[in-house]
Amino acid sequence: MAHGTGTGTGTGIGPATGHGPATGQSAGSSILRQPKAVWAVAFACVIAFMGIGLVDPILPAIAESLHASQTQTSLLFTSYLLITGFAMLFTSWLSTRIGARKTLLVGLALIVVFALAAGLSGTVEEVIGFRAGWGLGNALFISTALATIVGAASGGASSAIILYEAALGLGIAIGPLLGGLLGSISWRGPFFGTSALMAIGFIAIFVLMKKETQQPTPTPLSAPFKALTRPALAVLAVTALFYNVGFFILLAYTPFPLGLDAMGLGLTFFGWGIAVAVTSVWLAPWLTARMPRTRVLWVVLALLALDLVAAGLFVSSTAGLITCVVVGGALLGVMNTVLTESVMAATDLPRPVASSAYSAVRFIGGAVAPPIASLVAAAVTDAAPFYLAAGSVLVAALISVLGHRAIAHIDHEEESELAEAEAITAGESL
Predict the structure, then answer these.
(1) Residue spans with biased composition (Gly residues) (predicted)?
(2) Within 10 A of 20 (CB to CB), how many other CB atoms are there?
(3) Diameter over CA atoms, the chain
(4) Does residue 29 carry a pLDDT above 50?
């Protein structure tokens, strides 16, 4: 991908072959020499992104322990995503008024409280409700963390982005594994573990991060809503809505037909998380350097639909379904980054405004998918939800093709390193 910054890799991870000598040396020499506040935020980022796959390994255990149906258990994702998406509409309004430090602390405090409460719950309805509060905290934290690290890191934006994306990838990968390890002891374990780690992150940021001396320009409350009237943003948001149906059927429904224990599911989705992290950071920029963004979207959506059809065909094969999960993770990593990067290039709106408006719409797809998948499985067959997911992904591809005239300019927009990091962040902040 050609960038205005002149970088070759886009994200700055890996060999600094695309940088001039001075930039590459600066990033390499300063990456580990960061202020304590940066390390505190980076640590909290790892824990926050662990939450993406943390619950997957314990879904069957929760259903069994709390005598809940599969559909009820799937609402753990629905409540989390609905509140996350809704909160995204207001995070920029809030952070530009109370400051980044307070926004981070409020987000972390909410995660600590609601993750602990979820672990102490006695009914699945309580866990569903507390997961909603967790989603609010995660939205506040994730929406502010990247800007905080970039503003405070030494060695410039390149070093900050490398550090941030390393934290993101680490969190996505180890979340399911930790969920499996703690979940093999008790389904409550992952919730207690997240609460404890986030409490450490809260204390570290409270102690090590200084209060801001200058307040940013306040963002109007109406900004994200007006953003959705832009044709390019509307096409991409609706595309993402249908794509996310496929995404979350794969993520939230698959643990049930797999039939593995918590550790088995943890290892499966550890592989999924590794695939998501690797392709979002490395493969997505490589592809968009060689093909227009719109073509990447069409190709990857088609491949994802085929992978979901394969998951339906192999629903009775543990090895086959695990393979589909990991391959799906690789495709999801590319889609998340390229789709959100396209959103940022689609309009001249401030990136936080465009990202929050887009995220609010796409999370609707993620929220409705898990319970629909469970209901379809009960009414038809275990394979039917995967075919439904494949159909929804094809609808997403069709929308992006029919709306090509509105989004054609994204193929010619150049993005900076920071924009790509924001794209990966928005893509993975589930």
Answers:
(1) 1-17
(2) 11
(3) 62
(4) no
DSSP of 20-41: -HHHHHHHHHHTT---HHHHHH
Helix spans in 279-347 (H): 284-288, 293-313, 318-346
DSSP 138-164: HHHHHHHHHHHHHHH-SSHHHHHHHHH
Average pLDDT, the chain: 83
How far, in Å, CA of 393 to CA of 406, rounded? 20
Given a contact cutoff of 8 angstroms between Cβ atoms, the answer to whether 392 and 248 are in contact is: no
Domain that holds residue 120: 21-428
Scanning the structure block, which residue is given the tokens 């030494």?
Answer: 154
Distances (CA, A) of 255 to 62, 111, 292, 402: 12, 24, 35, 34
Residue 64's Cα: distance from chain center in Å? 28
Evaluate whether residue 3 is within a structural domain: no
What digits encode the pLDDT tens for the residues 366-390? 899 999 999 999 999 999 999 999 9
The beta-strand segments (E) located in 209-259 are none
Helices 318-346 and 262-278 pack at an angle, to 10 degrees, of: 40
Name the token pair of 51: 């939450």
- Provide φ and ψ at 103, rounded to 5°: -65, -45
List the CATH number of the domain containing 396. 1.20.1250.20
By mean pLDDT, which of 69-78, 168-177, 250-259 is the weakest?
A: 168-177
Split into its structural domains, the chain has a count of 1
pTM of the model: 0.81
The answer to whether 30 touches 152, Cβ cutoff 8 Å, is no
Phi-psi region for residue 188, left (φ > 0), alpha (ψ -120 to 50) or beta?
Answer: alpha
277 membership: H or E segment, kind and range: helix 262-278
Distance between CA atoms of residues 287 and 295, nearest Å: 10
pLDDT tens digits for range 146-182: 777 766 766 655 566 667 767 777 888 888 888 999 9
